[in-house]
């Protein structure tokens, strides 16, 4: 092997040194550009939060509260020191939401007993209902998620919709007081006509019961489809078919799609339970 005198470098060593220098230079450039990248991400987030504010009809005096409500813990962990996650707001929002729904129910149904009011409130603050509201607001598109949560489909997880929705209620409460939170709850969470929805709120939620049953026995979620509409426009009767479990089918009828779905779910649920008892 030829001897390398002091002060001399082989061509291979020089090439390795150049590559190392290039890598270090790239790293330095990336570090210098990091604040700009963060600013761009924040700008994109602020633009999307503007769209959400337009949708809910409220402009935040402190936009940071809205960003916090939309920040999942996975994002906060990946950007330590830059933001808080929405878990504390979620805790507060749950309490504010329960209070506002309770007040609305007592005002709408002063003759109802405590047990009936409790059941109605449970329907309105249940994860199934809040998840539907979150999907209607497309909250998944506004969430700030970490890379891992993003890869596992976090934007489509109903639990994240519910958490973000409760955090949003708290953010509105913190920013605009009880009045701002109350307007949002009335517009997006409560039925448009509380008085007309009384019996539906008090009735047994067969769809949720069927969903819980299917989850317990590790079956696919039920699928609902309107198969027939009859009667005049102002007084229609809907027929809905539901498929559940091992292709168990049933049809329900009602004066609304929701009522028909509830009836179909009730029939299927009774059939599945009878089948379970028979097998037992």
Report on the structure:
With 280 residues, the protein is mainly alpha-helical. The protein folds into 2 domains: 16-191, Ribonuclease III domain (Ribonuclease iii, N-terminal Endonuclease Domain, Chain A, Orthogonal Bundle); 205-279, Double Stranded RNA Binding Domain (2-Layer Sandwich). It contains 11 helices and 3 strands. The protein has a 3-stranded antiparallel beta sheet with strand order 1-2-3. The protein is globular. The termini are far apart.
Q: Which key features would you list for this structure?
A:
single chain; 280 residues; mainly alpha; Ribonuclease iii, N-terminal Endonuclease Domain, Chain A; Double Stranded RNA Binding Domain; 2 domains; 3 strands; globular
Write the CATH fold name of the largest domain: Ribonuclease iii, N-terminal Endonuclease Domain, Chain A
H/E series: HHHHHHHHHHEEEH
Instruction: List the strand order in the largest sheet.
Output: 1-2-3
Q: Provide the residue-averaged pLDDT.
A: 82
What is the domain tally?
2
Shape: globular
CATH H-level homologous superfamily name of the largest domain: Ribonuclease III domain
The helical percent reads: 55-70%
* CATH domain class of the largest domain: Mainly Alpha
Number of DSSP strand runs: 3
Largest sheet: 3 strands, antiparallel
Radius of gyration: 27 Å
CATH architecture of the largest domain: Orthogonal Bundle
Q: Separation of termini?
A: 84 Å
Structural class based on helices, strands and sheet pairing: mainly alpha
Low-confidence stretches: 33-44
| β-strand amount | 5-15%
Number of helices: 11
């Amino acid at each position: 092997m030829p001897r390398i005198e002091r002060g001399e470098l082989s061509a291979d060593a020089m090439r390795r040194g150049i590559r190392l220098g290039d890598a270090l230079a790239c790293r330095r450039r990336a570090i210098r550009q990091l604040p700009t990248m963060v600013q761009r991400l924040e700008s994109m987030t602020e633009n999307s939060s503007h769209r959400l504010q337009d949708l809910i009809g409220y402009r935040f005096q402190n936009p940071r509260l809205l960003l916090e409500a939309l920040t999942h813990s996975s994002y906060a962990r990946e950007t330590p020191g830059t933001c808080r996650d929405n878990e504390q707001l979620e805790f507060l929002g749950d309490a504010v939401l329960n209070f506002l729904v309770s007040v609305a129910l007592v005002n709408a149904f002063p003759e109802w007993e405590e047990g009936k009011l409790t059941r109605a409130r449970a329907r309105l603050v249940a994860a199934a209902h809040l998840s539907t509201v979150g999907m209607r607001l497309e909250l998944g598109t506004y969430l700030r998620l970490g890379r891992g949560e993003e890869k596992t489909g976090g934007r489509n997880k109903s639990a994240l919709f519910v958490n973000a929705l409760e955090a949003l209620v708290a953010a509105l409460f913190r920013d605009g007081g009880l009045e701002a939170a109350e307007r949002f709850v009335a517009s997006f969470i409560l039925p448009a006509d509380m008085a007309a929805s009384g019996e539906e709120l008090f009735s047994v939620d067969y769809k949720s019961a069927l969903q819980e049953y299917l989850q317990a026995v590790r079956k696919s979620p039920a699928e609902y489809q309107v198969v027939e509409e009859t009667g005049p426009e102002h007084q229609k009767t809907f027929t809905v078919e539901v498929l559940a479990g091992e292709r168990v089918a049933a049809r329900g009828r009602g004066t609304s799609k929701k009522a028909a779905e509830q009836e179909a779910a009730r029939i299927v649920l009774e059939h599945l339970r009878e089948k379970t008892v028979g097998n037992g």
